[in-house]
Write a structure and sequence with these properties.
2 copies of one chain form a homodimer. With 454 residues, the first copy, chain A, is of the alpha+beta class. Chain A has 15 helices and 16 strands.
Chain lengths: 454, 454
């Protein structure tokens, strides 16, 4: 990790073009803090290139001088991976927002090439014009950029059907730490010519290279949708229902859940009335998408429970409100610890049963809120009533996750905020292999120091 | 690359257990030649461990002494990646056949853990007992092992629907060159805790580590199937039909093609009569799988062409014979050059039109046979009438692929046979990154020298 030398910003501006370099503290400020405002630091300068050559020149200049670089996309991350804090204090922030070019939609291949600065909702709109969709969708769609989503292997609500970002990225162009550019953008369905460099860059959180373009898979837009909200008595039974649905029903787009006090919380905070009588236990939302009538297996499984269903856009949105309202309702209670974890299906019920007591044992005033992507075993553990910097909360939850064989980061990434707990999910041998790969591609350690590896 | 020192086989046997080490030349012989019998070399010994510890001990012993190791699975490869030839002459062959353990099928997660020595058809049978299938299927299913399929990122006929091996492998256990073992087998759907080591090992052809177990995704077994064989006048039109089918029809399992003289060849060599009158142009095979009636869009697209269809197993097998008979018919003409390439959809027609003339310009007596996985742009270019070691054929075809923006290896891998042409599909910067990763994980260069990187 470089020791934050004083950066010759004028020299950097001369090397990469003065129009791309910002050192004005007022403009810098927006790049120096994450959107939750929890993590804030100081950048030597912000570089906002418009071309891959500008990105490469920035990296080459910094690499020669041992200057740390923090790549930044839409700055919607939750783990301090895109702001100059900790080991990256005083770094250059490399904003990819201006690389937002969009290539023509290739209808024959169902693909499109885009720059990392493109926002998710702009990509989705573009795909829609051509009768396609993009396979990943998530709450921050208006501000999250493709580059940040690639860097974090973003997941969201449709991983069940289409996989996470890694499954959508068929090729990349990226600048490596030394300023060399690797480009492999043909997007071929089968292409076994060497190591999966694209897959390695996806999810590397800006520590191995900076993606400057991505070749993305598009999926057909499906005309018909059904959303069912059902109340299932226990987590264990909900997990079994999900397995049965996955086995019997083709075309599931999402299976989400609100657990614990979620329904009461949304009632109290948002005035949201229960969606149906007897709404207790786990609130499970199932979305199917396809053509024509929904498969009969879906109704056959869910008719055992109290439920509500909708096929029209307004009705579907009303049902989704019970899932998407959770973040808003929690924010009205207080600034939460946002922990994003995955449990094996067989361990989910045990984890959910244990987590409130484990948290209150660490911080008695704390309150636990649970929701997430049930089909993926992905639980968003939100904790209010504890100071957001009180790491006893994170420590207690993440240790419990590890005891149940889960992952301490489902989709938000490790960043700087969780790096100290990486050993809960990864062995020493794995971390040694990560370090070897990191040294191989970034020998001077300039790329996003402190992220993933401490 | 190690310089093949004389190997102390007795010392190796003492280190890893004498029962695992074979030096008898008669037994060795089967491991020293590939199944096409084109590539044959000499191994210092064959090591056949029964445990991950045996694999790790073998690697640690070889790593300390700079002894090259060639991992071998079912030995069904086509690119000399699993036999001790070229830079691996005199190496240890590390057979993974005896690591064929099968864990219980996890029905809740739709996953199973298996050893690398398990054959594909045994995995498929096991999955079937529990109502599942495995997402990858290919012709060599009786002998190909999961380990070899992981190492080569095997593709086959259902990549369109389920992706290649990389998409099925949710976790791995692997021994690295120094004998350390990395293990990450929870198979969690969302798990962003560091670099995608599993994805990197998949397709690395035994050059970065030796996979000793894999956590595999299973997919629901679908009860209903329809196969349609259609004659489409031109390659260009066939490519457009595929795009339309992909856009309008859910549940496509495979879209295959027989091109050029294929139908005539199968008639002449196998006595196979045309499947329907007016069978000219490109013979396209479409398989749908799902529940209940096939979607109407499938018939709507294909009824424009002469065709035959079947839903019963016998009828489907008869139609598949027109695609699967190709390899057999070609083998009756002569020992073919087997080139396995991918073209972008928009380039496929141009490539197919050019390839016969390009090949006969290099070797006038040569004859070109074309078939493959149409939806993936994956063409198997088989060339008879030219000596199988006459590299002018390979050189001509692979250069033409590169001119059309394709990949010189679709699913067979690079191995040793294609390593010299890697630069046609990958840039110098990419190959430099591959070398850096290789050095990081295998500093002594013992793992499968000469494969992928020369």
């Amino acid at each position: 990790v470089p020791s934050s030398p004083t950066v010759d910003v004028a020299g950097l501006a001369a090397a990469v073009g003065p129009e791309a370099v910002v050192s004005d503290p007022v403009i810098r400020a927006a790049y120096e803090v994450d959107w939750t405002r929890r993590f804030h630091g100081r950048a030597a300068a912000i570089v906002r290139p418009r071309t891959v050559d500008g990105v490469a020149a920035t990296l080459a200049w910094c690499n020669e001088r041992g200057v740390a670089v923090v790549p930044q996309g839409g700055n919607t991350g939750l783990v301090a991976g895109g702001v100059p804090v900790g080991a990256a204090e005083g770094a250059i922030v490399l904003s990819l927002r201006h690389l937002d070019a969009v290539g023509p939609v290739d209808e024959l291949a169902a693909q499109v090439s885009v720059g990392p600065g493109l926002e998710l909702d702009r990509l989705s709109a573009l795909a829609g014009v051509h009768g396609f969709e993009f396979g990943v969708d998530l709450g921050a769609r208006a501000t999250a950029t493709i580059g940040g989503m690639v860097a974090t292997n973003a997941g969201g609500i449709r991983v069940l059907r289409y996989g996470a970002m890694r499954a959508q990225v068929l090729g990349t162009e990226a600048a490596l730490a030394d300023g060399s550019v690797v480009r492999h953008m043909a997007g071929l369905a089968k292409d076994n010519t060497g190591y999966d460099l694209t897959g390695l860059l996806v999810g590397s959180e800006g520590t191995l290279g900076v993606v400057t373009a991505a070749r993305l898979r598009l999926v057909p837009r499906l005309p018909d949708r059904l959303v069912v909200l059902a109340g299932i008595p226990t987590v264990g039974e909900a997990v079994e229902v999900v397995a049965e649905l996955r086995h019997r029903v083709d075309g599931l787009d999402a299976v989400e859940a609100v657990l614990g006090d979620g329904l009461a919380l949304m009632h109290d905070q948002l005035g949201l009335a229960p969606p149906f009588a007897d709404a207790g236990g786990v609130l499970v939302l199932v979305e199917w998408a396809g053509r024509g009538e929904p498969p009969s297996g879906l109704a056959a499984v869910l008719e055992r429970y109290p439920s509500a269903a909708a096929t029209d856009p307004g009705g579907r949105a009303r049902l989704w409100r019970y899932r998407e309202g959770m973040a808003e309702a929690i924010a009205m209670v207080g600034v939460p610890h946002k922990l994003d974890v995955t449990l094996p299906a067989a361990e989910l019920a045990g984890f959910v049963a244990s987590v409130p007591a484990v948290v209150t044992a660490a911080v008695p005033a704390a309150r636990v809120h649970l929701f997430g992507h049930l089909a993926d075993g992905n639980v968003h553990v939100n904790v209010t009533g504890a100071d957001v910097d009180d790491e006893r909360v994170d420590d207690a939850v993440l240790h419990l996750v590890a005891e149940h064989g889960g992952s301490i980061s489902a989709e938000h990434g490790v960043g700087r905020a969780k790096a100290k707990w990486l050993g809960l999910s990864r062995t020493a041998s794995e971390i040694a292999a990560f370090r070897a790969i990191k040294r191989a591609l970034d020998p001077a350690g300039i790329l996003n120091p402190g992220v993933i590896l401490t």
